[in-house]
Amino acid sequence: MSKDRSRNIALPNFLIVGAAKSGTTSLNYYLKQHPQIYMSPVKEPKFFTAQFLKFPLNGIGDDKVEKRMIKTFDEYKNLFKWVTPERKAIGEASVDNLYYHQKTIGYIKRYLGEPKIIILLRNPVFRAFSAYKHLVRDGREFVSFEKGLQLEDERIKNNWEFIWFYKDVGFYYEQVKDYIKEFKRVKIFLTDDLEKNPLKVVKETYEFLEVDPSFVPDVSVKYNVSGVPKSKMFSATLKKANTLGSVLEPVVNTLFPKKGIKIVSWVEKIRAKNLESPEMKPETKEYLQTLYKENILKLQDLIKRDLSHWLL
Asked: Could you give phi then psi for residue 44, rounded to 5 degrees?
């Protein structure tokens, strides 16, 4: 267990580093239920990327994202001040850590040493579309998916938050290779695994984190689901509630972790009912599959998993 000796505060000994829109929020809440695991009360503190990103971030709604980022080490340490001795595994989930691998790895090693690394990977074609629907859901994206793909280079150049980089985030090979190279203990799952058998993935994660694998969490809720709101008015109301919840969640999760999870689960169920998921245009899917094909083939050799279904 890594510790800040000056204040005797335990620091994370594992990280969920990404990829974005691959099920990391669900895994975060499943792990949070385990009595031997402590998850940061702030999901995605983004502390490591905050050390080098240029501010301000200039995308629609990026200012609110920036305000929630944990920028100082003292703030980061405060996320873990409530860790108790029975919590053997201490973690947090900031999905931008995978995308910004070239810089975040050095900062992770500087502040945490050698934490265990968990990576979730989703078919990059559907991950890109999910990121788009995520921003539509939150009232930030106002153009078509195809137009968003066209605008990506401009958005990168103009320093928008990484969630807008629909195509670029999905080139996993170099990202994953660097984590495997730089860290001794790396566990990789596919989103397909989590969707088909969440309890199996959670149990394997418990074993990886060396906590009691017999504990059975509630995995009935999918968190942070993307989609297009059926009712914009209802979605706006939920967004306001979610904003309030994001302010209160760290306190509730710290003092009343079980109650905090129940509240979040309730909100997620309601939000999911108000979402519909449109289909991607066949020609757009074909374009993205062609774009990612070489990277996917290299990735499957690296992680020794058959990814041919990602190309269908």
From this structure: 65, 65
Q: What CATH number has the domain bearing residue 240?
A: 3.40.50.300
pLDDT digits (tens, 9 = 90+) for 40-79: 999 999 999 999 999 999 999 999 999 999 999 999 999 9
Q: CA-to-CA distance for 138 and 21, rounded, in angstroms?
A: 14
Total number of domains in the chain: 1
The answer to whether 96 and 22 are in contact (CB under 8 A) is: no
Instruction: Please answer whether residues 115 and 14 qualify as being in contact, where contact means their C-beta atoms are separated by less than 8 angstroms.
Output: yes
pLDDT given for residue 276 in this prediction: 73
Range of the domain at 20: 3-311
